[in-house]
Design goal:
17 helices
């Protein structure tokens, strides 16, 4: 069941059963979150500051639990709900902290630069895939997943290019494992490179797989980094529409070139696949904040709720990580995905310095 189904099923009588199925896994995620927040409090008390934020500790604790014990079907629904739906709700709530003024301050140069980085990253990632002997379909999925928005891009592109299930599975396996690695590693990189909040937000928005993961990666750096990162990532996500349309048109031309009646034209994804509900909700709250429709006294609670939901979701993300996924995917896929991520990081770094976004 996808996140939209979870949200709306609770409004129907039959949704009570769905809610009950979510409870065990949700309680487990909250318990891991409580443990993470307790460890953060102990860090602050004993060390004077929290060197590892509760958000990072939640991922590490969740991964540790998953390594020692694989949750059975009873826990699966709640973990999936927490990792996806709660994190999407956190992204929606983050919209209340962003106004249109911030969007206007981004500038045409940054918007055009984001589009250019996506195009360059897709081309470089696809070339790497073919160089390492991967199929056209798998190379395309990896390129779009790494360069745009992870699982969402893979899910949208797969039916358009007619990708096989094995290719889709191999591509998606890395969005879970490497996604967690990026969320954990970026704050360390930001500290080592002495990035300010805005610079880090741009870099995270350009390199992290999914919109919710950007929020998770930038949360330790503060609200400015989270706002900038989310905005940049949303611009990347909007590139999914033109990319899918281009692939569809290319597929239709290829189908026309083949013998008449020998191929079924690829199916275009729905609006819901191109623009997830939480992005629309995020943009809606941005508009409401810009129009002063959100009372000022609600901004702090909404921000706190977004942070808390993010920590719960990170606990769930850790509980869902299977470290054996990389080994199963094979060394060539591992190399291509890893190198593609490095290329994306280098191109993003070049954009930041070209636009002088690191200037204080």
């Amino acid at each position: 069941m996808n996140s939209n189904a979870y949200v709306f099923s609770f409004l129907r009588p039959a949704g009570r059963a769905a809610a009950l199925s979510v409870l065990p896994g949700l309680v487990l995620c909250v318990a891991v979150t409580a443990a993470a927040m307790g460890l953060q409090a102990l860090e602050t008390r004993w060390l004077g500051r929290a060197w590892l934020e509760a958000l990072v500790l939640a991922i590490l604790l969740g991964t540790a639990v998953r390594t020692l014990w694989a949750p059975g079907p009873r826990w699966t629904a709640g973990i999936r709900f927490s990792a996806k739906t709660l994190l999407e709700i956190a992204v929606v709530l983050l919209g209340a902290t962003i106004s249109a003024r911030m969007v206007l301050q981004a500038g045409v140069g940054l918007l055009a630069g984001i589009a250019l980085v996506v195009v360059l990253a897709i081309g470089a990632s696809y070339a790497l895939g073919r160089l390492f002997g991967l199929s056209h379909h798998l190379s395309t999925l990896i390129a779009c997943g790494n360069s745009i928005c992870g699982n969402s891009a893979i899910a949208a592109v797969a039916p358009v290019i007619g990708a096989h299930g094995d290719d889709v599975g191999a591509s998606i396996a890395f969005t879970a494992v490497l996604g967690v690695a990026v969320v954990l590693g970026l704050p360390l990189l930001a500290s080592a490179a002495h990035m300010d909040a805005r610079m880090f937000g741009v870099f995270a928005g350009m390199t992290v797989y999914a919109v919710p993961q950007v929020l998770a990666a930038t949360a330790p750096a503060g609200q400015v980094a989270a706002q900038v990162g989310t905005f940049v990532k949303l611009v990347r996500v909007l590139m999914l529409g033109p990319v899918v349309l281009s692939l569809s048109l290319a597929g239709r031309r290829a189908a026309t070139a083949r013998a008449a009646g020998s191929a079924t034209p690829p199916r275009l994804p729905s609006l819901g696949q191109l623009v997830p509900w939480f992005i629309l909700g995020f943009l809606g709250l941005v508009a409401a904040r810009s129009a002063n429709l959100i009372p000022t006294h609600l901004l702090a609670p909404l921000s706190a709720a977004s942070t808390w939901l993010t920590i719960v979701s990170m606990a769930a993300l850790g509980l869902g990580v299977d470290m054996r996924a990389i080994a199963k995917a094979g060394p060539r896929v591992t190399a291509v995905v890893s190198l593609s991520l490095v290329v994306l990081g280098l191109v993003s770094w070049a954009l930041i310095h070209l636009l002088n976004l690191g200037a204080r």
